[in-house]
């Protein structure tokens, strides 16, 4: 089984070393260096784009100190929505992003990665709650599509989303 842990947001830009302020947009990326997985956070202005070979990246906004905690939809709802997306080829990007979210929330575990004979990379995930194994196509959505996916996930899966 593959597994790795990475640190929380450093609250500082990896390039400029400036501290992020409440409301600042920043990017985070996971990169592999030897046996370690490192997280690097970048201010919006210093973001060079996802480096080649990155394990993943995402865009965030530094929360305000008075911000209330995010309340996700229950895990069963996330799993149900994930299952629904499996039959919709046009929703591959959404399913991939949702799979990464559920791995991060420890609803699923990354068991393996594989390539089909056609060269399509897939993640093999296991869900202990329902004891199912899933194969999810690894996609690379563009930056505009990432923003759309983020808005869709927020609207669908956050309790009291605006």
Concise synopsis of the structure shown:
With about 160 residues, the protein is α+β, with helices and mostly antiparallel strands. It has helices at about 75-85, 90-105, 145-155, and strands at about 25-35, 35-45, 55-60, 110-115, 120-125, 130-135. It folds into two domains: about 1-65, no CATH class; about 75-155, 2-Layer Sandwich (Double Stranded RNA Binding Domain), CATH 3.30.160.
Classify the fold: give the CATH topology of the largest domain. Double Stranded RNA Binding Domain
- Per DSSP, what share of the residues sits in E-state strands of 2 or more residues? 25-35%
Shape, principal axes of CA atoms? globular
Q: Write the CATH architecture name of the largest domain.
A: 2-Layer Sandwich
Question: What's the end-to-end separation, in Å?
Answer: 38 Å
Low-confidence stretches: none
Overall domain count = 2
Strand order within the widest sheet?
A: 2-1-3
Number of strands: 6
How would a textbook summarize the main sheet?
3 strands, antiparallel
Radius of gyration from the alpha-carbon trace, in angstroms: 16 Å
Query: How does the helix and strand content classify structurally?
Result: alpha+beta
SS field, number of helical segments: 3
Report the helical percentage. 10-25%
What number is the mean pLDDT? 83
- Helices and strands, in order, run as EEEHHEEEH
The CATH class of the largest domain is identified as Alpha Beta
Structural summary, described in words:
This protein has two domains: 1-67, no CATH class; 75-157, Double Stranded RNA Binding Domain. Helix 1 (75-85) packs antiparallel against helix 2. The mean pLDDT is 83. With 162 residues, it is an alpha+beta fold. Strands 2-1-3 form a three-stranded antiparallel β-sheet, with no helix packed on it. The protein has helices at 75-85, 92-104, 143-157, and strands at residues 25-33, 36-43, 56-61, 109-115, 121-127, 132-137. 15% of the residues are buried.
């Amino acid at each position: 089984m593959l597994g790795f842990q990475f640190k929380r947001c450093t609250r500082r830009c990896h390039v400029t070393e400036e501290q992020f302020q409440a409301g600042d947009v920043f990017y985070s990326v996971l990169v592999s260096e030897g046996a370690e997985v490192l997280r690097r956070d970048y201010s919006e202005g210093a973001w060079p784009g996802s480096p080649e070979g990155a394990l993943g990246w995402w865009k965030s906004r530094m929360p305000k100190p008075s911000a209330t905690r995010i309340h996700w939809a229950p895990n069963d709802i996330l799993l149900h929505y994930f299952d629904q997306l499996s039959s919709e080829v046009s929703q591959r990007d959404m399913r991939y992003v949702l799979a990464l979210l559920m791995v991060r929330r420890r609803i699923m575990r990354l068991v393996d990665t594989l390539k089909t004979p056609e060269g399509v990379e897939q993640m093999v995930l296991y869900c202990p709650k329902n004891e199912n194994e899933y194969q999810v196509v690894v996609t690379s959505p563009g930056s505009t599509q990432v923003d759309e996916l983020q808005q869709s996930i927020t609207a669908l899966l956050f309790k009291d989303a605006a």
